[in-house]
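From the shared-data thread, chain only:
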Amino acid sequence: MSLLTAKEIMEILPHRWPFMLLDTVEELTPGVRAVAKKCVSYNEPFFQGHFPGEPVMPGVLMIEALAQAGAVAILSLPENKGKTAYFAAIQSAKFKRKVIPGDVLMLEVEIVKQKGAIGIGKATATVDGKIAVQAELTFAVSDSE
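Structure, as C-alpha coordinates:
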Protein backbone atom coordinates (compact mmCIF):
# COMPACT_ATOMS: atom_id res chain seq x y z
CA MET A 1 0.00 0.00 0.00
CA SER A 2 1.35 3.41 -0.99
CA LEU A 3 2.15 6.06 1.58
CA LEU A 4 1.01 8.98 -0.64
CA THR A 5 -1.37 8.95 -3.60
CA ALA A 6 -1.11 11.25 -6.62
CA LYS A 7 -3.67 13.57 -5.04
CA GLU A 8 -1.61 13.80 -1.83
CA ILE A 9 1.59 14.39 -3.83
CA MET A 10 -0.13 17.35 -5.54
CA GLU A 11 -0.70 18.86 -2.09
CA ILE A 12 3.12 18.99 -1.72
CA LEU A 13 4.34 19.67 -5.28
CA PRO A 14 3.15 22.38 -7.69
CA HIS A 15 3.46 19.98 -10.68
CA ARG A 16 0.36 18.91 -12.57
CA TRP A 17 -0.34 16.54 -15.48
CA PRO A 18 1.31 16.06 -17.89
CA PHE A 19 4.40 17.15 -15.98
CA MET A 20 3.78 15.47 -12.64
CA LEU A 21 5.86 12.34 -13.03
CA LEU A 22 5.09 10.55 -9.75
CA ASP A 23 2.21 8.13 -9.31
CA THR A 24 2.75 7.27 -5.65
CA VAL A 25 5.20 7.73 -2.80
CA GLU A 26 6.08 4.41 -1.19
CA GLU A 27 8.42 5.58 1.59
CA LEU A 28 9.03 9.00 3.09
CA THR A 29 11.24 10.39 5.83
CA PRO A 30 10.65 14.17 5.60
CA GLY A 31 13.84 16.07 4.90
CA VAL A 32 15.83 12.85 4.55
CA ARG A 33 14.55 10.39 1.94
CA ALA A 34 11.73 9.53 -0.45
CA VAL A 35 10.97 6.49 -2.58
CA ALA A 36 8.38 7.07 -5.31
CA LYS A 37 6.91 5.11 -8.19
CA LYS A 38 6.23 6.04 -11.81
CA CYS A 39 4.32 3.50 -13.90
CA VAL A 40 5.41 4.20 -17.46
CA SER A 41 2.59 3.69 -19.97
CA TYR A 42 2.20 3.98 -23.73
CA ASN A 43 -0.11 6.94 -23.06
CA GLU A 44 2.73 9.24 -21.95
CA PRO A 45 2.64 12.31 -24.22
CA PHE A 46 6.41 12.25 -24.83
CA PHE A 47 6.23 8.83 -26.53
CA GLN A 48 4.53 10.42 -29.56
CA GLY A 49 7.87 11.83 -30.64
CA HIS A 50 10.50 9.93 -28.58
CA PHE A 51 10.81 7.74 -30.58
CA PRO A 52 8.06 6.69 -33.03
CA GLY A 53 8.27 2.92 -33.38
CA GLU A 54 10.67 2.58 -30.43
CA PRO A 55 9.28 4.46 -27.41
CA VAL A 56 11.95 5.39 -24.84
CA MET A 57 11.43 7.63 -21.80
CA PRO A 58 13.70 10.67 -22.22
CA GLY A 59 16.60 10.77 -19.79
CA VAL A 60 15.82 14.35 -18.79
CA LEU A 61 12.35 13.22 -17.70
CA MET A 62 13.83 10.43 -15.58
CA ILE A 63 16.00 13.08 -13.91
CA GLU A 64 12.91 15.29 -13.47
CA ALA A 65 11.00 12.38 -11.87
CA LEU A 66 13.90 11.90 -9.45
CA ALA A 67 13.89 15.62 -8.69
CA GLN A 68 10.17 15.49 -7.95
CA ALA A 69 10.74 12.59 -5.53
CA GLY A 70 13.48 14.60 -3.83
CA ALA A 71 11.20 17.63 -3.70
CA VAL A 72 8.57 15.56 -1.89
CA ALA A 73 11.20 14.66 0.73
CA ILE A 74 12.37 18.23 1.28
CA LEU A 75 8.99 19.96 0.94
CA SER A 76 7.40 17.54 3.43
CA LEU A 77 9.19 19.36 6.23
CA PRO A 78 6.73 21.64 8.05
CA GLU A 79 8.96 24.69 7.54
CA ASN A 80 8.90 24.13 3.75
CA LYS A 81 5.13 23.73 3.37
CA GLY A 82 3.91 25.80 0.41
CA LYS A 83 7.43 26.39 -0.94
CA THR A 84 8.95 25.20 -4.21
CA ALA A 85 12.17 23.26 -4.78
CA TYR A 86 14.05 24.32 -7.92
CA PHE A 87 16.96 22.66 -9.74
CA ALA A 88 20.29 24.29 -9.01
CA ALA A 89 22.58 21.66 -10.58
CA ILE A 90 22.81 18.13 -11.89
CA GLN A 91 26.09 16.28 -11.39
CA SER A 92 27.37 12.86 -12.42
CA ALA A 93 24.23 11.75 -14.27
CA LYS A 94 24.68 8.27 -15.68
CA PHE A 95 22.06 6.49 -17.78
CA LYS A 96 22.39 2.72 -17.52
CA ARG A 97 19.32 1.33 -19.32
CA LYS A 98 16.33 2.33 -21.41
CA VAL A 99 12.96 2.87 -19.75
CA ILE A 100 10.07 1.81 -21.96
CA PRO A 101 6.28 1.51 -21.74
CA GLY A 102 5.28 -1.10 -19.17
CA ASP A 103 8.25 -0.42 -16.90
CA VAL A 104 7.74 0.60 -13.28
CA LEU A 105 10.34 3.22 -12.45
CA MET A 106 11.28 3.26 -8.76
CA LEU A 107 12.73 6.61 -7.75
CA GLU A 108 14.85 6.94 -4.62
CA VAL A 109 16.36 10.19 -3.40
CA GLU A 110 18.35 10.65 -0.21
CA ILE A 111 19.13 14.19 0.93
CA VAL A 112 22.83 13.97 1.77
CA LYS A 113 23.59 17.63 2.48
CA GLN A 114 21.64 20.78 3.23
CA LYS A 115 22.72 24.25 4.26
CA GLY A 116 19.99 26.84 4.43
CA ALA A 117 17.85 26.76 1.31
CA ILE A 118 20.39 24.74 -0.75
CA GLY A 119 20.72 20.97 -0.63
CA ILE A 120 22.04 17.94 -2.46
CA GLY A 121 20.26 14.67 -3.09
CA LYS A 122 21.72 11.33 -4.14
CA ALA A 123 19.24 10.00 -6.70
CA THR A 124 18.77 6.53 -8.19
CA ALA A 125 16.03 5.24 -10.47
CA THR A 126 15.61 1.51 -11.01
CA VAL A 127 13.45 -0.87 -13.05
CA ASP A 128 13.11 -4.42 -11.73
CA GLY A 129 15.97 -3.71 -9.31
CA LYS A 130 18.34 -2.67 -12.11
CA ILE A 131 19.73 0.86 -12.20
CA ALA A 132 18.30 3.01 -14.99
CA VAL A 133 19.85 6.32 -13.95
CA GLN A 134 21.93 7.78 -11.12
CA ALA A 135 22.70 11.42 -10.43
CA GLU A 136 23.50 13.98 -7.79
CA LEU A 137 20.84 16.70 -7.75
CA THR A 138 21.31 20.12 -6.19
CA PHE A 139 18.16 22.02 -5.26
CA ALA A 140 17.18 25.40 -3.91
CA VAL A 141 14.04 25.85 -1.81
CA SER A 142 12.21 29.14 -2.31
CA ASP A 143 8.91 30.73 -1.50
CA SER A 144 6.51 30.17 -4.37
CA GLU A 145 5.68 33.85 -4.69
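The two ends are 35 Å apart (CA to CA).
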